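Weekly structure sync, notes
Attendees: PL (lead), two postdocs, one rotation student
Agenda item 3: pending single-chain targets
PL asked that the sequence for the first pending target be pasted directly into the notes so everyone works from the same version. It is reproduced below exactly as submitted, 296 residues in total.
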Amino acid sequence: MYISRVDKHFIHHTIVSRSTLQPTVSRLIDIPDPHSAYNDLLQDLKDVIDVKILLSNGLWVNPASSLLQQYKKNVLTLYEATIEDIDFSFPEGPEASINKWLWYKTGINTSSMFTNGYIHRNTSLILINTFIFNAKWQYPFPKEMTKKRMFTKLNGIPVATEFMSYSSIYALKLNAVKNVDVIRVPFEYEGFGLYIALPRSSKGLHELESIITNENVDVHDLFANLTMTSVHLSMPKFNLTATLNFNLALSSLGMSEAFTNTSNFSGMSNTRLRLSDVVQKTTVQFSESYMTTPFF
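Predicted structure, written out during the meeting:
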């Protein structure tokens, strides 16, 4: 499992502040001062132009499980989070109000994120971290060049898919690892780009996954030392959504205690708390002019 720099700060503060899990997660995320680093990141992103990057944090708390005042102060000042008391036993459920907040923060219809009855009525706290990235390509794909082509799915079945095409100078690395090419597609703001690692065969994805998940492999080397090259680039136009549950992954990384009744979240509340689910919902959308990727 890969945890982004953005997620690392919020995980550290909201989950393990002054708990018995802190040594484990501090080793996992490797950030000396995550609280100040996250706040610095928030301020820096406000100055970014031509790229829309939004970070939002929200906590919905059962009044019976009140948060410690110092914790609330830190979350409000360092993470600019929304904190609301909510009655999880309300007959109509808390899902509608949380979905409304998500829609307000992301601009995306999130009504399917929390369907009615999804949240257990005995819940003590819901914590949500959203990350929105929306940017225009530096070299937009002409719409008249978008054509139907065959795309081979992971199961080997080809499907007709719209492909965008454009010829330009891109940063490229052939055979970055065995039978995998890497290209960087720049956004309008030059500090950002989309890196695509493309296996040369439809069966190469599993091999690529085994390489980048090998603890002895530095993934950053895969995207280093690219060479500016004239390329005719074709890539599919699509909108994909995935929902992932991280319970098993986090437990395997040493956080299993957080999901048990022996967990210690004393830095957050005097109430006995434990994690029930850690879920990420991701959407990736490519079009001729931009890419958008909301995470929450």
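Discussion points:
- The first helix runs from residue 5 to 16.
- The helical segments are 5-16, 22-29, 34-45, 69-79, 95-106, 205-212, 219-222, 247-255.
Action: rotation student to compare against the earlier draft before next sync.
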